[in-house]
UniProtKB/TrEMBL annotation:
UniProt keyword list: ATP-binding, Kinase, Magnesium, Metal-binding, Nucleotide-binding, Thiamine biosynthesis, Transferase
Domain called PurM-like C-terminal: residue spans: 161-323
SUPFAM superfamilies named in the record: PurM C-terminal domain-like, PurM N-terminal domain-like
Binding site for Mg(2+) 5: D230
EC number of the protein: 2.7.4.16
Residues reported in the UniProt entry to bind Mg(2+) 2: D54, D83
InterPro entries reported for this sequence: PurM-like_C_dom, PurM-like_C_sf, PurM-like_N, PurM-like_N_sf, ThiL-like
Protein name per Swiss-Prot or TrEMBL: Thiamine-monophosphate kinase
Organism whose genome encodes this protein: Fodinibius salinus
Length: 345
């Protein structure tokens, strides 16, 4: 008791510092434990087993009036599937834990279930168990997901190499723009109905890139992979820290959707749009470090397979474990706020 009186509270710590209280090091040399998008252990039939867990908390990850129960069910599973995708794994089962306030309607819960199970069915994965309890006021959802992959195809955050090229599987910033629209609906009347719809959909119904992750995992030239959940800047930082090299991201190369550009057009501030896209979170795209001599061929085959572009957005170089953001080749300081649950690390 006396100790807690003198103790600062946890808002003085970063998320990384809080996690470090439970783990000696965030980067385990063999990639087995804490520090990646999932843990990696021995699985059945000589495969590796992936396991990951994610919390969704009302007021932190969503506001009840902003998202239907169906979409929330979808999103709760999607963010977990994305972590398995980032490892190059094939998801195979999940557990669902719920803390629910007594006043919640049965109809809300049924719709949540339908959204969740529709996505589970699409990915052919089974609900294996969970836990159910009461909460005072807020809805809290936790999903733990499992997956498998071939040992040589496991993609870690720690394997980026100096000279690699950075690629991203799709546009960035749409989800963060969707969140802005939900927060200030009147400010974005200049968007067409379909632009608005597209941005809201990215936020409320993200599409985890499971098939792309598995396809990319077969490529030896893909050295490292992570999913972009906290925002490109923060997630690139995780690769930089764990691979102990410098990541350089070129703002002009960032893939931005037409709807996202329109979202920003009103102010005519394109520079700000790029910075918003680099900082904004919940994109659920894959960021990868690829051997430079293989990237052109990989992009060609990726285009043939998925009819979409694997965007080249930067490079990996020797240096401190930091991320440098460049505009026209010169470093810039990004002023947009990154998403942080706690203090800046
Ligand atoms: N309380 C905790 N105790 C032990 N390990 C933790 C704890 N919280 C997070 N971790 C581990 O720390 C690493 C980073 O966690 P984090 O939640 O940031 O994962 P992420 O994939 O980067 O983000 P997201 O939660 O958006 O999927 C992961 O390996 C995770 O398992
Ligand atoms: C009401 C509300 N406020 C803010 C946000 C934005 N947001 C919440 S969590 C997160 C990063 C990933 O989280 P985690 O690492 O916990 O998976 C982001 C960008 C939101 N979706 N809803
Ligand atoms: Mg992740």
């Amino acid at each position: 008791m006396a100790d807690s009186l003198n103790s600062p509270n946890i808002s003085d710590l970063s998320e990384e510092q809080i996690i470090a209280l439970f783990a000696d090091s965030l980067s385990s040399a063999d990639g087995i434990g804490i520090g990646d998008d999932s843990s990696v252990t021995e699985g059945p039939s000589g495969l590796k087993q992936f396991l990951s867990t994610d919390l969704i908390v009302e007021h932190v990850h969503f506001r009840r009036q902003d998202i239907s129960a169906h979409f929330l069910g979808h999103k709760a599973l999607a963010v977990n599937l994305s972590d398995i995708a980032a490892m190059g794994g094939r998801p195979n089962g999940f557990y669902l834990s719920l803390a629910l306030p007594k006043e919640l309607s049965v109809s809300w819960l049924r719709q949540f279930r339908d959204g969740l199970l529709a996505l589970a069915k699409k990915h052919n994965i089974l609900l294996l168990g969970g836990d159910t309890t009461r909460s005072q006021n807020d809805i809290i959802v936790n999903i733990t997901i499992t997956g498998v992959g071939k040992p040589r195809q496991v993609k870690l955050r720690s394997e980026a190499k100096v000279g690699d090229v950075l690629c991203v599987t799709g546009t960035l910033g749409d989800s963060a723009a969707g969140l802005k629209i939900l927060s200030n609906p009147d400010q974005y009347a200049h968007l067409t109905k379909s632009e608005r719809q597209q941005l809201l959909e990215s936020h409320q119904q993200p599409k985890p890139e499971v098939e792309k992750g598995q396809w990319l995992s077969q490529e030896k030239a893909v050295h490292a992979m992570i999913d972009v959940s906290d925002g490109l800047l923060r997630d690139a930082h995780h690769i930089a820290q764990q691979s102990q090299c410098r990541l350089n991201i070129e703002l002009e190369q960032l893939p931005l959707s037409q709807a996202f550009k329109s979202f920003y057009e009103k102010n005519g501030i394109n520079k700000q749009a790029q910075e918003f896209a680099v900082a904004g979170g919940e994109d659920y795209r894959l960021l990868l470090a690829v051997a430079e001599d293989a990237v052109k061929d990989l992009q060609k085959r990726y285009k043939q397979k998925f009819s979409t572009i694997l965007h080249q957005i930067g490079s990996v170089s020797k240096g401190d474990s930091e991320v440098e953001i460049l505009r026209d080749g010169s470093p810039v300081e990004v002023k947009e706020q990154e998403f942080k649950h706690f203090k800046e690390s």
